[in-house]
Amino acid sequence: MDVDVTPRTQLAECIITQLQAAILGSEALMRGSLAERRSDLYSDIDLLWEVPDIEFETSIADLPEVLNRVRPLASLRFDPDFQRSVKRRLVFIRFAGVPLFWRVDLAMLAT
Fold first, then answer.
1. Helix axis angle, 56-68 relative to 6-22, nearest 10°?
2. Bridge partners for 106 per DSSP
3. Do the bridges between strand 45-51 and strand 88-95 make them parallel or antiparallel, or are there none, so unpaired?
4. Which strand (E) or helix (H) includes residue 67?
5. 8 Å CB contact between 88 and 70
6. Does residue 103 carry a pLDDT above 50?
7. What is the C-alpha to C-alpha distance for residues 20 and 93, in angstroms, rounded to an integer?
8. Which of 15, 66, 101, 110 could lock onto 22 through a cystine, CB 3.0 to 4.6 A?
9. What does each C-alpha distance from 15 to 66, 68, 83, 86, 101 come to in angstroms?
10. Measured between alpha carbons, how far is 96 from 15 in angstroms, rounded to an integer?
11. Segments of 1-111 assigned E as strands
12. Model confidence over 70-102: pLDDT tens digits?
């Protein structure tokens, strides 16, 4: 089956652009099946966002506003296993008006 992942890839690239613009010195990149060009109809969007240590708490606090610049949010939740970590978060993001399968799994790391 040939699946056009162009719109999903464009969404991922827009998210990356907004994340990097939000925090000076941060770096965001695509991971997983989209990055490896082996995605299918049901593949989600896996991203990594490395943030300078001093900006980590700010990046967490500002994340909803940053993501709303991409598209309106339908939901945003943090993995409870990393809630107390000062260096890492895992965020599950859904945007309004996009297919359910296009959930974004955002790994945030303080560097």
1. 140
2. 47, 91
3. unpaired
4. helix 56-68
5. no
6. yes
7. 17
8. 66
9. 9, 10, 22, 23, 16
10. 14
11. 27-31, 45-51, 73-78, 88-95, 104-110
12. 999 999 999 999 988 999 999 999 999 998 889
The label of the residue with tokens 């107390």 reads 84
Q: Are strands 73-78 and 27-31 parallel, antiparallel or unpaired?
A: unpaired
pTM over 0.85: yes
Q: How far is CA 25 from CA 12, 53, 56, 73, in A?
A: 19, 10, 11, 25
Extract the tokens encoding 110: 């303080």
What is the distance, to the nearest Å, from the Cα of residue 105 to the centroid of all Cα atoms in its chain?
Answer: 6
Q: Which residue shows structure tokens 């770096």?
A: 27
Tally the residues of the chain: 111
